[in-house]
Amino acid sequence: MTTTMRGDQLARLLGQWHALPGRRRSPDYAALAGSIRGLLSDGRLPLGVRLPAERELAAALSVSRTTVTAAYRGLRESGHLTSRRGAGSWTTLPNGHRVATSGLWTPDDDIEMIDLGVAASAAPPELVGAARAAADDLPRFLGSAGYRPTGLGELRDAVAAGYTRRGVPTSAEQILITSGTQQALDLSLRLLVPPGTTVLVESPTYPNALAALAARRARISTHGLDAETGWDAELLLGAVRQTRPRMAYLIPEFQNPTGHLMPAALRERLVAAAHSAGTELVVDESWVDLALDGQAMPPPVAVFDRHSRVVSIGGLSKAYWGGLRIGWVRASAPLVQRLAALRVGVDMASPVLEQLVAVRLLHDAERIVAARRAELRERRAVLTAAVREHLPEWRFKEPGGGTVIWAELDGPISSALARAAEEVGVRLAPGPRFGLDGTLERFLRLPYPLPPEDLTEAVRRIASVRYDLDHVARPDWRTPAVIA
C-alpha cells in the first residue's frame, strides 16, 4: 500500500527550501524540485511515497500552483517522480541507479566514491584465519538441522564472559545471538514497543534506529544532546519521568554520532528513573570496545539494573567486521526466551559458520581490538588535522572513542554540501539523517575508519565544494544519489 504525504507534512520537511543566502537565487520551481531531491538524498523522504496534489502543496507552501507544477515536471524529467493521471505522483528512483553496499542509492556508472557515509572499518587480518578454523569446526554441527534460535552455546558463552569481565555477571541463558546489532534492536522493538506507544531517543541518534522505530509506528520523543557536553542529566531524567515512555533507546558509549561518553552517575540515575516510570531501557553498546585514549570506561548500564529494565545490545560490526552480521542481546533469561520465540518468525537462526568465526575472533579479542584502536587513533588524528587545515571555521570536539566526528558547520548547509560533494566523488551522511523533521542542518558526521590518504583527499574535496556553495553560481541541481 502506497503511503500518502499531506501538503503540510511535506512543507514541514522542506523547511527553508529556497536557495541559500550568498548564492544566485534559483527560480522557485527549481529550488523546490532540488529540495525534494535533497529530501530523497538524505533519507527523509523514502521511495514510493505519493506526494500531495499540486494545489494542496502550493497552498501549504504559499506559492502559486504553477511553481509546484513546474517543480513536479522537473522531478519527472530527472526520474525522481512518476505520475499517472487519476492516481497521483510518487517518488521513484532514476534509471541507471542501484543499491550500494552502504544502503545508499548510487549510479551504476559512478561507484568510485570516497564513502564517508559508513562509520565501520574493513575486516581485521585475523578474519581469514578465523574463518578457516571455523570451517574445520563445522563438521561437528552438520548432523543436526542447524537451527539454534538463541545461538550456538559456545558463542553465547563467549559473549556472556565478555559482560562478566566488564562487571556484569552474565550467563549464556541471558544471551541471544542475532544477525547483527540492527536485528537485536528490531527484535527488542517488536517485543517491547506496541504500535503508537512513546519511545525516547537521543537527538541526534543512529538513523537506522529511527527507521526501525518508524516501522513500529512508535511515537518518538527526543532528548537533545549538546554538541560540546552531551547529555543534560536533569533534562534527560525529567523527560523519562514526565513522558513515561514505553522504551528509551540510548547509546551511552561514544554516542553515534556525537562521540560522547555517558558518565557513571547518570547511568545509575537513569536506571532508577526508568524503573520508576515503567520504562524499558535498550542500551546500544556497539562502540564500547573502541575507547581510543586509554581512559577508564564507566560501568555498563546493566550494572545498575535490579529490576530487569535494561536490555543491552551489541555486536561485531564496529570493532571487528560488519560483514559477519553477528550481534547479540543481553537481558534476563525469560526475556531472551521470548525474543527467541519471536525471532523464529523472522529468520529462524543466525548462520552456524559465521557464529563459529565469531567465537574464534572473540577468543583473540584482546589482540584484535588493540590493533583496531591503534589504527583508529592514527586515522582520527589524520581527519582532525585535515579538517582544521582545510575547514577551520568548522567546530568539533575530538571524541575519546568510536569512529566518527560530529562537526558543527559554518552554516545550515549540511544537505546542500552532501549533494555538492557527490559531484566530486565524496559520499556524506548529512546532519538531518540523524534527527527528525529536517533539523541538524548545521551538523555533519565525518567517520575516520578509511585509509589516511582517502580521509585527507575527502576533506580537500569537501573544502573545495564548500567554497563553491558561496562563490559559484549553480543554475540547476545535479541529480544526486538517493538514500532510501
- Helix amount: 40-55%
Evaluate the radius of gyration. 23 Å
Class of secondary structure makeup: alpha/beta
Q: Give the low-pLDDT segments.
A: 98-104, 473-484
What is the assembly state of the chains in this entry?
A: single chain
Q: What is the topology, as strand order, of the major beta sheet? A: 7-13-12-11-10-8-9
Q: In percent terms, what proportion of residues is strand?
A: 5-15%
* Nearest-integer average pLDDT: 89
Largest pleated sheet? 7 strands, mixed
Count of helical stretches: 16
**Span between N and C termini?**
17 Å
Backbone shape: globular
Number of E strands: 16
Question: How would you describe the overall organization of this protein?
Answer:
By secondary structure, the chain is of the alpha/beta class. The protein has 16 helices and 16 strands. The strands form four sheets. It has a seven-stranded mixed β-sheet, with helices on both faces. A four-stranded mixed β-sheet has the order 6-15-16-14. A three-stranded antiparallel β-sheet has the order 1-3-2. Helix 7 packs parallel to helix 8, helix 9 packs parallel to helix 10 and helix 14 packs parallel to helix 16. The longest helix is centred in the last third of the chain and has 26 residues. The C terminus is likely disordered.
